[in-house]
Amino acid sequence: MTRKLTILDIAKLAGVGKSTVSRVLTNDPKVKIETRERVEQVIQESGFVPSKSAQAMRGGSAKVVGVIISRLDSPSENKAVSGILDVIYAAGYDAVIMESQFSAEKTNEHLSVLQKRNVDGVILFGFSGCDLSIVESLNHKAVVIAVDTGQISSVGYDNYGIIELAMANLQQQGKQHISFIGVDPSDKTTGLMRLNAYIEYCESANIEPSYQTGQLSHESAYELTDHVLKPETEAIVCASDTLAMGVAKRLQELDRSDVLVSGVGATDLLSFIFPNTFSIDPGYYAAGKASASLLIKQLAGCHDVTHLTQKAMIAQ
Amino acid sequence: MTRKLTILDIAKLAGVGKSTVSRVLTNDPKVKIETRERVEQVIQESGFVPSKSAQAMRGGSAKVVGVIISRLDSPSENKAVSGILDVIYAAGYDAVIMESQFSAEKTNEHLSVLQKRNVDGVILFGFSGCDLSIVESLNHKAVVIAVDTGQISSVGYDNYGIIELAMANLQQQGKQHISFIGVDPSDKTTGLMRLNAYIEYCESANIEPSYQTGQLSHESAYELTDHVLKPETEAIVCASDTLAMGVAKRLQELDRSDVLVSGVGATDLLSFIFPNTFSIDPGYYAAGKASASLLIKQLAGCHDVTHLTQKAMIAQ
DNA sequence: CTGTTAGCGCCTTCAA
DNA sequence: TTGAAGGCGCTAACAG
């Protein structure tokens, strides 16, 4: 392997000065088309690759954004990350993805690493108990997803709308006896907000509430099903597809194919396996795109703190 | 926000020369302990963070490895990535993750970006039709997962062992009529190799083979089920959990709870929803760890080309 | 239009 | 044990 080439080598090879090479690299319009072609020719042939580290150091921007996801294997976050990547690649940035595993400590570690790396910005998937103080100090170089904080831009899911959408849909189908299974309210968004949304909807729609909360797992929902299932129950709304999976499984065992189940997450597997089922899509992909666009806008100089709420829709 | 500090600022603040600060940063032993403490003190107080870009440019190593995954939402690759991250973080590296979406073109784009970024190494999740020529030129700075190539280190899954394990397990349970559903053999590993493993196992075990291949989707497997299901069928081995899900679903509809189904991937959902089911774990997490360890060893100077095969096991 | 000249922030000889 | 000086690869004035 030959030594790494630099613009100086290219300059010599092309018989020009190194700044001309630099100009070609940066698409500076004031280069004679002819010269440019010659330089590009040489670059091609020699397989020269400009050093990002040097560019980053010179220009101050590494064209990198950090993405701190809570769990790599979360389908919802995956969808959002896809949206993020699409946007930031298009804008010429790269992403370094890190996993917080819902640990505030790990998150802060990651943040400090990202800071060392001179990343241009950060997108953080928030979680209950996550410490936003460091992120806030990043000011206009960060966007938080899924939790709201006054000081820093965010993209949130419409936790109320999600549940309302499910409830309204069921009501339209003539269902009146609708139960709910969620997760522990110590989780502010998926837990508390969705539960409250259910309770409030029941009040305003004159539905007798019947609900249980537990862990975010199939098993937990499976076990809780019997506690909210009455002979007259017509539907069960779940705070997530994972829960819906457990509920639907239990209903199947009990031969209660009359009970409709709704989840949140747009997992195609759910309705494939259990027909009398539907899912609400909180708009993960769109939220990812939105957060990335927001960040890029801020990096470009827009210093407003914006709070977006992603609109939910019925999956498919 | 104050201007970014440099070692020079720290040097002045601490009343030393900038090289001394640099020495402190690099843990150079020849610094009077007293001086070091003073410098570290100042660094703490001022919140100085050395610029990785500058370090990278100077030293040549950015302490970054690129990871090119085929799909972010692939549960199997997620597990492997977790393994990779665990290892490389521990070794002081960071990861920039990119998604190839099974496109050779995108992969090459990503590779060129990574090269520009001066990453220390690359881990690539291979796929059929993926163009390894560029990766090969990276020589000892790359590891490929899931496909084998002579020239470059790799960690592969034991596609034969995976199927053999499933078959043997079924035989032990007294099953003799075992069918197979896989994916199109144009996919070399999940498709061709696993199919061949099935056929060969049948030969040596004197089992009448009965198989179909299609797409890697629940629907495809669902539809193919009837083609391999005979009254005497006792089990169906599937090339992946996704397929197994489709097959189990169809069997449930047909009331064939007598037929056992096996998948590949260790998805907990599979056996949760369908009891008469089990899954083979190709060792994704371990493979991820192995590939990262391999890469780091190579970056540290070991220039052997190593090919590892991850051992499969029955999930749980 | 193009070449020359400074640095960017850091690490590393080379002297002291 | 420490400071001064040089240079990594690149970009951005500043002159031609």
TrEMBL record, chains A, B:
InterPro entries: HTH_LacI, Lambda_DNA-bd_dom_sf, Peripla_BP_I, SBP_2_dom, Trehalos_R_gpbac. Keywords: DNA-binding, Transcription, Transcription regulation. NCBIfam families: trehalos_R_Ecol. Residues 5-59 form the HTH lacI-type domain. The keyword DNA-binding applies. It comes from Photobacterium frigidiphilum. This is Autoinducer 2-binding periplasmic protein LuxP. GO terms for molecular function: DNA-binding transcription factor activity; transcription cis-regulatory region binding. PANTHER family: HTH-TYPE TRANSCRIPTIONAL REGULATOR TRER (PTHR30146:SF146), LACI-RELATED TRANSCRIPTIONAL REPRESSOR (PTHR30146). It holds the Pfam family LacI. The keyword Coiled coil does not apply. One of its GO terms (biological process) is trehalose metabolic process.
